[in-house]
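Milestone 3.1: sequence recovery, worked example.
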């Protein structure tokens, strides 16, 4: 997310009418700003927002929260409202499916992005786990060096996504979101 003054921030907790900008400083309640938000896999949208509340460093420390600012969208620029709604629908669908992950960091990041995540079993147990799941499993995410074994076990019924860098989550989210 980029504010109208060019500063980049992490947008969290998007809702139908607002968002929270982590680590935003120097904003005052009631201030209006133009915000560019990168909606991963959907596109960029621009909104005018009003600062609804600010969590200072001091308040954040005492509350155990991150500092930042809560913004209320007051104007959708161009096609931002449709993009925003589409993105929120995609986020909501993430919770309806399971991703099996071998790497703990990948699993943590996928869960933080809204996916249900389960530890991937050994390849020999994969078919049994798929059959026993009450929730649709959309992919198995594995380190590249283990992908061939999982691909053989999964066959054509389940995508196996090989990951080189477990912390590089955006391309993985784009691929998984394409399965929704």
């Amino acid at each position: 997310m980029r504010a109208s003054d060019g500063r980049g921030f992490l947008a969290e907790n998007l809702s139908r009418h607002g968002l929270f900008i982590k680590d935003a400083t120097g904003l005052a309640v009631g201030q209006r700003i133009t915000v560019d938000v990168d909606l991963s896999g959907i596109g960029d949208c621009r909104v005018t927002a009003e600062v609804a509340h600010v969590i200072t460093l001091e308040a954040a420390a005492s509350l155990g929260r991150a500092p930042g600012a809560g913004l209320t969208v007051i104007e959708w620029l161009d096609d931002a409202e449709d993009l925003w709604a589409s993105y929120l629908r995609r986020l909501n669908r993430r919770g309806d499916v399971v991703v099996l992950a071998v790497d703990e960091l990948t699993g943590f990041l996928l869960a933080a992005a809204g996916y249900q995540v389960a530890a991937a079993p050994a390849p020999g147990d994969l078919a049994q786990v798929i059959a026993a799941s009450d929730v649709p499993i959309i992919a198995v995410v594995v380190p590249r060096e283990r992908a061939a074994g999982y691909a053989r076990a999964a066959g054509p019924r389940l995508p196996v996504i090989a990951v080189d860098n477990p912390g590089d989550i955006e391309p993985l989210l784009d691929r998984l979101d394409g399965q929704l």
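The chain has a mean pLDDT of 88. The CA atoms of residues 116 and 138 lie 10 Å apart.
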